[in-house]
Amino acid sequence: MQLIAYYYDQEGNYYRERASRLAEHCLAEGIPHTIKAVEANGWLDACAAKPRFIMETLQEHNEPVLYIDVDSPVSSSFHELHEPSEPIGAARNLRWGREFTWYASSVLYAAPLVPAIEFLARWIAANEASLSNGLQHTDHECLNIVIDVSNDLPFALLPKTIYSQDGRGFANTGVARNAIKQRSINALRKRPQDIRSITAAVQRIKDKYTWQAK
User: What is the pTM (predicted TM-score) of this model?
Assistant: First the structure.
């Protein structure tokens, strides 16, 4: 398993600097890693690149990966993380000791197995539908929509210790921001038309990634 991340700098070098810092940390700790720059048409498009980046990295290396946002703190040793038996997994958002019911797209485990490819294809399709329809859903919201409609796929809840957003710069507003996003996701869950619009694209996306997943 390796740690993977990407960065995009619309203005300034914030994410590039975080990528360099994360790479240095991985080298110092002996953590296998892939950290790349991506091209994007603005911030929302850069965020929507997450499942594509994970899918492409799985295709390139054909081994399990742990994706994290390039500026996210890792709160437990990578070497102590046990790979879940499920092929895909995420952690619930946790800030300042409060665990939310929605999942954070800031950390995600994936293995090169068919159920994970199916899940990532659904997430890519949801992101594409959001951008093309002007819905302006974030990658977090699209991830949670896909989790809601993917009961047919094995999914792991990653341990709390793997990820925490404490100290990420939202000390004064983190709980409020997360509470607002929780309400936004709850509202989206009542709109099944947003889900139906992505199904036609899923097979097209899976066909694009043709390596032999198990």
Answer: 0.80
Structurally, the chain folds into a number of domains equal to 1
Inter-residue contact 69 to 5 (CB < 8 Å): yes
Residue 112 lies in a domain: yes
Per-residue model confidence as pLDDT tens digits over 102-133: 788 888 999 999 999 999 999 988 888 777 66
Which CATH number fits the domain that encloses residue 105?
Answer: 3.90.550
Residues 62, 67: Cα–Cα separation, whole Å = 14
Dihedral (CA of 156, 180, 190, 126) sign = negative
Within-domain flag for 214: no
**Position 159 in a domain:** yes
Structural domain of 190: 2-208
> Tell me: the pLDDT tens digits for 167-208?
343 333 344 444 445 555 555 555 545 555 566 677 777 777
138 closest CA partner among 77, 93, 96, 89: 93
